[in-house]
Structures are given as structure tokens and as C-alpha cells.
Amino acid sequence: MIVLIDCNNFYVSCERIFNPGLKDKPLIVLSNNDGCVISRSEEAKRIGIQMGIPVFKIRDLIHKNKIFVFSSNFTLYANISRRVMHILKTYSEKIEIYSIDEAFIELRLHKSSYKECRNILNIIQKFTGVPVSIGMARTKTLAKIAVSLAKKRKDNIFIFNEYSNMLNLFKNIDIFDIWGIGKRYTKSFYKNGVYTAFHLIHLNESWILSNFNINVLKTYMELKGIVCYPIETYKKPKKSITVSRSFVNPILSFDILEKYINDFAFLCSYKMRLEKKRSNSMSVFIQTSFYHDNIYSGFTSENFFKSTDNYIEIVKKSSLLLVKIFKKKFKYKKAGVILNELNNFDSYQLPLFADKPQDKIISKESLMCSIDYIINNFGYSKIKLASQNLGYNWRTNKEHISPMYLSEWNEILDVKI
Fold this sequence. Notes:
Shape: globular
Strand order of the largest sheet: 5-6-1-7-8
Order of helices and strands: EHEEHHEHEEHEHEHHHHHEHEEHEH
Number of domains: 3
CATH architecture of the largest domain: 2-Layer Sandwich
Number of helices: 14
Helix content: 25-40%
Strand content: 15-25%
Distance between the termini: 45 Å
CATH class of the largest domain: Alpha Beta
CATH topology of the largest domain: Alpha-Beta Plaits
Structural class: alpha+beta
């Protein structure tokens, strides 16, 4: 059986661990630059705070209902997530970490399965302080449904063990809420009179393939208890790496925006080199705020002459791409760099006319390794290219951020005995 462990309102739960006074209080966590709501307590949900809503739209609601507001503290959240996953690894060798707050594990179904799930829930709560919900079923898709049902129960556990019970529950599960369907295919299903999971499992396989694709058919099969997505214990290689940021203040100047783009390209390069990869192509995008009248979004991509992991080449390319999409008189609120078509460091195809002296290639790689060494030992801000933000380390706006309780000596929680 596949068991899905999902941390309840994870970012909110992390904030409550070190501040018990927040229990049962309405609380929200904001995205970078304190822009949008990305996590809500149950109390905040009942007030009417929607996921993803810009914070400026709900300031009156926050003040009126005395909602506690926190900036995102991803370093803290990642640290707590690792502790949760470490506990899960003691229960099963087969574990797939699906996201920062979700993981699939494989367990055998037996008479005491409920007790085993209860034990997992209690141990995680005891040693990390994070409340979780647990769904158990034969497939990942069913486990996703089971965990959503578990969140509505007081014991936070739901086990799909009888198919007859599933059929009754499927009548109340909207097609939109099925893992693998979502917004992408919901409209098409609605047009064909398919509104629930119950309607979906009674469709014909050939009809699904003729109107959708193999992934939708796999979802259909998983709803019937046939495993199409087994637990993947290995880490999937990255196909792309992205670095993007929303700016605290909108940017009008090309020169200033270029420095940010160069910063993003440099950091993107470093992340890619950590993965021992090279990139075949690069994309750059810029966009204004969607909440103003003067809206513009620019995006462009271009291949490198040959696969590269060279900081200098990548940063230079980012500037050239920015020139293509930059337009004057717009206030840019967000920008980013994407390195695409990644391949292994030691296995890539050279172009026909790439005939450079070997000693020059070795010299360049030596320089890149020196940059890696400086960053790894002294920090990212200690070395930069001349086109980057010199003397200025860009940071996101986080007015309500909590301390780094688990990673900074000077911010460790004081306990008075």
C-alpha cells in the first residue's frame, strides 16, 4: 500500500512550533517580498483569506480580525522538513519526497495499519511539532484523495481498503480536485458531462485516449486501484534551473535591471554547477505588475553555441537576451533567468566548428573551479563579475520574518528554566 504523509498548513505549523501562543489564532505566511499569501491557518481560511491573494488587498481584513502575518522563512521550513522526512525513513526504505511538506512511503496493509499510521502521526508531532494528515491506498492518486479526506477528520487518518466504499466517496469528489487533472482538463470533462471521480471511472478507456492523453488514462487506471505511478526512490535529474525574484520597488532603468539579470544568471550558473550539469539554452523573462494598467511581459530564449557551465558565458548571454525584450517606460516588478536542456558535465555533444586549443579549455575550467571554491568557502557575495551588482547584495523584503531558530547561533531560542 502507498501512504501519503502531508504536513498540515506546513509553513503556518512551522511558525507555531516556536511560538505556541499562535495556536488557534488566525495566521498567514507571505511569499517573497511579502507579496501574496502562500499558507493559511484554518482560522484564517474561515475568515475568508484566499490562497495567493495579494496582501495589499486584505490589509483591512488583517487589521479587523487581528491576523498574525509572517514573511516566508524558507531556511527554517526546509530544516523542519528534513527532520520530518528523516522520521519517515525509519518506517520505510521506499520513500519518495514529493515536496517540502509531502512524501509517499510504502507500507503493508494489515489489521493494525491504522495503529501504524497513528504511530507515525504521533511521532512526527512529538519530535518536530508538525501536525500531519495520512492517507493510505493502493495507488498514489487514491492516496492523494485519501489524505484530502483525512484532513476533514478529527484523527487526520483515512485508509482506502474497500472498493465499495470508494465508489460512494467518489460521487462527492469533483473532477477538478483529482491529482493529475486539475485546471488543465477540467473544462473539457465538464463539457462532456464528467463532473466527479465517480463519472470518470465509468468512462471508456478508448474514449479517454481519443480525447485526452496517456497521463489522463493513467489517472483513470489509478482510480481503479491499478498502479501506474510507483514510488520513485531516486532523485530525478533536473531538466532546467530557474532563478527569479520579485522586486521590492519597480525598476524603470535598463542598467539597473541588467545588473539584477546578471546576478540571477550567475546564481543560476552556480546552482547548475553544483548539479554537475551543462546547459544548451537560456531563457530570460521580465514582467510588470499584473495589478497596474500598464502591463507588459517579455520572454526570449536562445541556444548556446555549445553546452556550457561557464559563469562568464552565461552572464554575458543574459545581457544579450535582456536587450531583446526590454522596453522603455515600463515599471518592471519581476525578472528571471532559466537554464534549459541540461546535460551531464562529462557527456555532451560538441558542435562541428568548436575547435579550440585544449589548454585554453583547461584554463577556463580552472577559473570556474576557483570561483566555485570561493563561493563554497566564503559565501556567494564574496565574488562577482564586473557587470553584477557590486557592493550591493540584493535581498527580498521580509518585514515580518521569524528568527532562524535552527541555523543561526545568535537566533537560537532562549529557554528559561
